[in-house]
Each structure stands twice: as structure tokens, then as C-alpha cells.
Amino acid sequence: MSLIKPFFLLLATPLAMASPAWASEPYDEIQRRDLALIQIQLEQVVTVLERLEARQAIQAGGVDVYLDVPRARDDVRAIQRGLDDYLSPRRTPPRHLGAIEGDVVGNYLERRP
Q1: Of 76, 9, 75, 83, whose CA–CA distance to 43 is shortest?
Q2: Which of 30, 32, 53, 95 could form a cystine bridge with 69, CB 3.0-4.6 A?
Q3: Rg of the Cα trace of the chain?
Q4: What is the distance between the terminal CA atoms of the chain, rounded to a whole angstrom?
Q5: Alpha helices, DSSP H, located in 1-113
């Protein structure tokens, strides 16, 4: 169980670097490349977890402490889904529209004498 916390601290470090502190522009090219790199690294983590799960299955019963691979893999997949949703949102984020001046007056009520 104590192995799980350091494992996820390693995962959290690159994600913390992609924090909203510099994510004001969600489509910044450098940020997109960094997040894509994190996605590739997460795929590598999943591959290592699958190999570890296979080795643990062979050693079943002979080891008292083991890594809960299915839970770790589910957590990594949740992070991947979050990154996918961020990089490819279901809808386009709203744009900030400036005030429209000159084209539209906006006062259409008129009082008759």
C-alpha cells in the first residue's frame, strides 16, 4: 500500500506543471505538446503496469505486499480521459465577444406624443 502513494506522486508531478497557472490559453501549442507527451508517458505507465500485473500473477501467494494494479490502471485511465477531454472538448469553448458599438444602437423603444 505504501508503494502506491510515491507512484502517484510521480504521475502528479507532470500534471501539476500543466496547471491552470499558465493554462489561460487552452490551445497554446507548447502546452498541447507537453500534454501530448504526458499522454504518451501515461501509455508507457499502463504498459509497465500490465507487465507488473503478469509478474504478480505468477508470484501469487508468495508475496505479502503487492501493488493494486487494476486500481492504479483505472486511475491512470481516468487521468488520460481527463487529458483527452481537455485537449478535445466535446464543444468549442465560448469566445469572449467584445462590445458591439456603432453597428447596433440597441434602443428600439419609442414613445409617441
Answers
A1: 76
A2: 53
A3: 24
A4: 82
A5: 4-17, 29-58, 69-87
DSSP at 103 = S
**What amino acid is encoded at 94 in this protein?**
P
Q: Residues with Cβ < 8 Å from 53, sequence gap 6 or more?
A: 69, 70, 73
CA atoms within a 13 Å half-sphere pointing along the CA-CB vector of 57: 8
- What residue type is assigned to position 68 of the chain? D
Please report, in tens digits, the pLDDT of each residue of the chain (113 residues total): 445 555 555 555 555 554 444 444 556 888 889 999 999 999 999 999 999 999 888 887 777 777 888 999 999 999 999 998 888 877 776 777 666 665 555 566 667 77
How many other C-beta atoms can be found within 10 angstroms of the C-beta atom of residue 76?
A: 18
Query: Tell me, what DSSP letter sits at residue 95?
Result: P
3-state secondary structure of 92: coil
Burial of 15 (0-12, 13-18, 19+ CB in 10 A): middle
